[in-house]
Amino acid sequence: MSNSAPQLPGDSDEEPGSWSAALPLVGLIPAAGRASRLGALPCSKEIMPLDLTPGGARAQGADGPRVVCHHLLECFTAADIRQAFVVLRDGKWDIPSYLCREPVTGLDIAYVAVTSTDSVPESLSCARPFVANSRVAMGFPDVLFEPRDAFAHLARCQEESGCDVALGLFPCATPWMTDMVELGEEGRVVDIQIRPATSQLAFNWLLAVWGPRFTAFLSEAMVNPITGEKEFQLGTLFKQAAAEGMDLRGVPFPDGYFLDIGTPEGYGEALRRRSI
User: How many CA atoms lie within 13 A of 46 on its CB side?
Assistant: First the structure.
C-alpha cells in the first residue's frame, strides 16, 4: 500500500510553466458576482432569458428559452471545449438548477462553490485545484460576442506561438469601462491600460486562453493582491505578468462585436437584437 497522498485533479510534478497542446482545454467562468448594476433581479443575471421562444437560437432539440450564459457555453463547444468549471457564489443555485434542465449539448459543467469573493481574479483562483494542469479558456457569462469561434482562434495562437496567454481583442469605443490593449511586434502585449478615461488604443481584451504558468501566477497573486483599485481587475494581473516577462499575445477581431448585458441598457439591447 502506498503512503503517498492522493493526487487531486490538477496536481502534477511538472513545472508550472510547462504545457503543450496535448493538455486539455477547459472552460472557466467567473459567476460569483452580485449583478448590482441591474438592481433587484428575480434570478441570477447569467440565466436571464434572451429569447422566450422554446429553444430560441440554440441547438435543435432545446426546449427552454435561450438564456444569457448559453452564448458563452455554445462558444466553448465551437472551440471543441468539452468541460467547463463555473465559480459560483453561495445563493446562486438557480444557475446549476436551470442548466441541469437545459444543458448545452456536448459540454460537461462542474461547479466550484464559494461563499463570496471580492473580484474576478479571486473567483478564478478558487478553481486552481481543478485547472492547474489544463489550458484555460476564460470568458464572462454576461457578455455576448461575435465571432463565435473566437476561442478556437485564441487556442491556435497559443499553440503556434507557445505563449502563456492569448487575449481576444475587440473594438471598443468606451475605454473607461474596460481595459485597452497595446500590441507590439508579433502580436505581443506591450501595455494594458486599466479603465482609462480616454485612450488612443482601439481594442480591449474580452476573452483569454492561458496555460498552467498563468494559473499559478494568478493564484499566487491572490495571496498578496495589489491594492489601490476600487475592484481588483484581471487586466491588472495580465499587465503585471507581461511586465515580469510572461509571454502575452493579442488576437484582434477587427470585425468583432460584444455586448455587456450587465446593465439595463445592455440587456435591453440584447433583447432587441436577439440574433447574436
Answer: 25
Contacts (Cβ under 8 Å, ≥6 apart) of 271: 50
Please choose, from the candidates 163, 152, 176, 124, the residue with its C-alpha nearest in 3D space to the C-alpha of residue 250: 163
- Taking the C-alpha atoms of residue 145 and residue 132, their distance in angstroms, rounded to an integer, is 27
Q: What number of other Cβ atoms are within 10 A of residue 94's Cβ?
A: 13
Q: HSE on the CB side for 97, CA within 13 Å?
A: 6
Beta strands in the chain (DSSP E): 25-31, 49-51, 66-67, 83-89, 108-114, 135-138, 143-146, 165-171, 179-183, 189-194, 203-210, 248-252, 257-260
Q: Is the dihedral of CA 261, 253, 85, 229 positive or negative?
A: negative
Peptide bond into 147 cis (omega under 30): yes
pTM of the model: 0.87
Per-residue confidence of the chain (276 residues) as pLDDT tens digits?
333 333 333 444 444 444 566 789 999 999 987 766 666 678 898 998 987 666 555 554 566 678 999 999 999 999 999 999 999 998 899 999 999 988 888 999 999 999 888 899 999 999 999 999 999 999 999 999 999 999 999 999 999 999 999 999 999 999 999 999 999 999 999 999 999 999 999 999 999 999 999 999 999 999 876 655 567 899 999 999 999 999 999 999 999 999 998 888 888 888 887 655
Rounded to whole angstroms, how far apart are CA atoms 58 and 101? 14
Using alpha carbons, select from 275, 270, 212 the residue that is nearest to residue 246. 212
